[in-house]
Amino acid sequence: MNLPKSNDNGEGLVFNIQRFSIHDGPGIRTTVFMKGCPLNCHWCSNPESQDFFPNLMVRDMNCRQCGACEKICPEGAITLTREAGRKIERGKCSQCLVCIDACIYNSLNVCGKYMTVGEVLDEVLKDRAFYRNSGGGMTISGGEALLQWEFVMRLLRAGKRQELHTALDTSGYATWQTVEKLLPFVDLILWDIKHLDSREHKKMTGVGNHMILENIQKASKTKTIWLRMPLIAGFNDSDTHLAKLIDLAKEAAVEKISLLPYHEGGKSKCEQLGRTYPFPAGKAPNDERIESIKGMIEKAGMRVSIGV
Fold first, then answer.
1. Could you give the CA distance from residue 138 to residue 32 in angstroms, rounded to a whole number?
2. Which residues pair with 31 in a beta bridge?
3. pLDDT at position 103, please?
């Protein structure tokens, strides 16, 4: 697990603030993506969210081979030749990120910024009128938001003081004591379910799911929950597994199940991070199967959506 480092200024590490989001809860919302995650999902569409430190992101298509980054790199991790172009030895890179300021072509970028609660809330409140008119609000996501629970709790509390509808998008992988601290400031939990068999869950995410499932049962007693599941062919799309998902949803009085068909959004980002994409064989079920799954859940009396 990548454990967060303390920040003496009480800041949180954010990797994106997405305005006009319509996929992370009801209405028009602003989603705040916190950086750092204890899971290592093979299909992760935001691999830049996993580390609890700012990452160097490389977009070679923008590189004009000016050589500025090579000259300034204190570790000698960047080399530039006419034949091979620019090469970055990630093993030498200390993530000092000084090369980013030297690049004027947007070829080198940083993912992750330390921000105060006030700075984040200022961004969120820019769209207050849209929240009011659409029934939207602020969603805190990740990475895994619970990894920075103290900052997230203060942000949620500040949002409630501004009378915002608040949602928490989480895997639920944290102690109950942590989850419980945030609940007074949360209106809706978007609970990410990967697989209901702990061995399969660990095989594809690096951790088991016992704590996750226990937390759902406890939180469901007081909070509205939507279950969200990445839909991956051959992994969690069997009738047997879906029947277990429906049972969980009924047991926890879940309001809605959201199915998110697999996509390769994380592949290009892994390339920008200098990593090998860990799930090249991944695929979504075909359209006919997705409709069949949707019908199965609806037949069980559950509300279901595809892709949102």
1. 8
2. 18, 139
3. 95
Contact residues for 142 (Cβ-Cβ < 8 A; gap 6+): 33, 34, 35, 36, 37, 49, 169, 170
**pLDDT tens string 85-127:** 899 999 999 999 999 999 999 999 999 999 999 999 999 999 9
- Distance between CA atoms of 75 and 73, rounded to whole angstroms? 6
- Look up residue 301 and give its two tokens: 């009396």
Residue 202 in tokens: 């660990």
DSSP characters over 187-244? SEEEEE---SSHHHHHHHHSS-SHHHHHHHHHHTTTSEEEEEEEE-TTTT-SHHHHHH
Residue 303: both structure tokens together? 């509300």
Spatial CB neighbours of 130, under 8 Å, sequence gap ≥ 6:
20, 27, 28, 136
Distance separating alpha carbons of residues 287 and 291, to the nearest angstrom: 6
Model-level pTM? 0.93
Residues 225, 23, 2, CA angle at the centre, nearest 5°? 75
The tokens for 222 are 């007081």
Query: DSSP secondary-structure letter at 40?
Result: -
Cβ distance 102 to 68 under 8 Å? yes
Find out whether 19 and 30 touch, Cβ atoms under 8 Å.
yes
Domains contained in the chain, CATH given = 12-52+112-306 (3.20.20.70), 55-110 (3.30.70.20)
Alpha helices in the chain (DSSP H): 68-72, 98-102, 117-125, 128-134, 149-161, 176-182, 198-205, 210-219, 239-251, 265-273, 287-299
143 upstream amide cis, omega within 30 of 0:
yes
